[in-house]
Amino acid sequence: MIAVELGGLFIVGWSLRLLQPSIKGMTGEWKVRQALSWQKATALNDVIIADDRGLTQIDHLVLTPAGIVVLETKNYGGKLYDRGRKRPWTQYIGKQQNQIHNPLDQNYRHRKALAFLVPGVPLLDFVVLAGSGRFAGVVPQGVLTISELNRKICELNALGSVPESLQDAWHTLQPAAHTDSATRRAHLRSIPGGTEAIWRSGAGKWGLLLGVAMVVAGIV
Question: Which residue range or ranges hold the NERD domain (predicted)?
């Protein structure tokens, strides 16, 4: 029985490593959802919409009196450095250096897709740093921390009621914002590393269930 328990613990550890990228991303998005919920914001979370390049995933859309806010959430750690628009960010965690795809460029694509769906509607886009990562130099325009996001949404909502034209645009947008698993898989297959992400997620979840079952069986 000890061998079964140890085998289960090994599988649990292996599964958690597979799921680590997903867990990290979901944790960051959960923090932003909590912030939006605290603000009683009207929001759509983790949606996929079509654009001229296929499908694109948007972390959060928020309806405010000033327009629709587009949020890209990043749960980064370490020190961050901006090298200009359309260039990667540099991340330092200790002595390790990583080049990160510029999320401001990601949000630019999201904004273009929304502008096609609801033309003429004011759009505001921000990247939210939900982790411990902070810029060591100048913070790029359009980048917020969670606390700064709270202040920004509060500031926008203080402008008054949402105009009818924006409410109409929001109702138009909702059916185009997909959350079903089939669309999610199609989106993942269309991006680099997406097929691997699908495999990691499936294997990680099943492995976690199997590992926990083995640990329980070993204890009992």
Answer: 24-137
